[in-house]
């Protein structure tokens, strides 16, 4: 977890981002208590910005604040993961379709370079590097359609998905499969085929629904429930 802040910028958002990253990457585990006093001391700040960061983490459903008891990292909610994927699919399928008519050759070349870099990270067993490149692929795709609000919307909802993604590599979701899926998206965009691009993106984002039940069974202490919304069940049925 990052334990430094830049005094030139607002402190609370920096602490929020550092804690969010630590929760997403499982450095801070589900059920773990967070001490306002200890985190303030670690960052060398007062307790007020830490309190503000806790509130934002609570709004993101990553921590639960219990009066008189403390603040705790929440377990991964299967429903929250499935709902986040549902929203993400709606946005990114639209992005993939738009890219077929808007994405420039330069943008497509950048995307191809990211897929190549992912293959190199997979070969090196660099799981964190692979996931960082995966995120960059999706961000670059959103930028390629000149829709500046698309990626912030995705980023806002995907924290629970990211926790599962860190758990799912490399066993539950083979990196080679994810690379192939990115390649299929990119190939459809290069052909200017919006239906194929949409289908490839939908398949890619449904991958988490395949891994989710297995991960929940293997890590019952990390997950909160076993109830999935209807749209999640339909997503698994498609596979």
UniProtKB/TrEMBL annotation:
GO molecular function terms listed in the Swiss-Prot or TrEMBL record: DNA binding; DNA-binding transcription factor activity
InterPro entries recorded: GntR_C, TF_FadR/GntR_C, Tscrpt_reg_HTH_GntR, WH-like_DNA-bd_sf, WH_DNA-bd_sf
The keyword Transcription regulation is assigned to this record: yes
Keywords linked to the UniProt accession: DNA-binding, Transcription, Transcription regulation
Domain HTH gntR-type: start-end pairs: 9-76
PANTHER family: HTH-TYPE TRANSCRIPTIONAL REPRESSOR RSPR, TRANSCRIPTIONAL REGULATOR, GNTR FAMILY
Protein name: GntR family transcriptional regulator
């Amino acid at each position: 977890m990052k334990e430094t802040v830049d005094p030139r910028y607002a402190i609370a958002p920096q602490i929020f981002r550092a804690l969010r990253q630590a929760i997403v990457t499982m450095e801070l585990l589900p059920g773990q208590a967070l001490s306002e006093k200890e985190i303030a001391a670690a960052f060398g700040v007062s307790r007020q910005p830490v309190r503000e960061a806790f509130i934002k983490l609570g709004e993101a459903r990553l921590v639960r604040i219990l009066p008189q008891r403390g603040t705790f990292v929440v377990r991964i909610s299967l429903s929250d993961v499935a709902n986040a994927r549902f929203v993400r699919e709606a946005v990114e399928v639209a992005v993939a379709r738009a890219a077929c008519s808007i994405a420039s050759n330069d943008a497509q070349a950048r995307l191809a370079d990211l897929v190549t870099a992912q293959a190199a990270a997979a070969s090196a067993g660099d799981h964190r590097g692979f996931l960082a490149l995966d995120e960059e692929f999706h961000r670059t795709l959103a930028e390629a359609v000149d829709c500046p609000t698309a990626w912030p919307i995705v980023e806002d909802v995907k924290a629970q998905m990211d926790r599962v993604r860190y758990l799912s590599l490399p066993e539950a979701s083979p990196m080679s499969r994810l690379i192939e899926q990115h390649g299929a998206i990119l190939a459809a965009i290069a052909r200017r085929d919006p239906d194929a691009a949409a289908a490839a993106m939908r398949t890619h984002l449904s991958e988490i629904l395949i891994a989710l039940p297995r991960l929940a069974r293997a890590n019952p202490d990390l997950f909160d429930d076993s109830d999935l919304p209807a749209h999640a069940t339909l997503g698994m049925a498609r596979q």
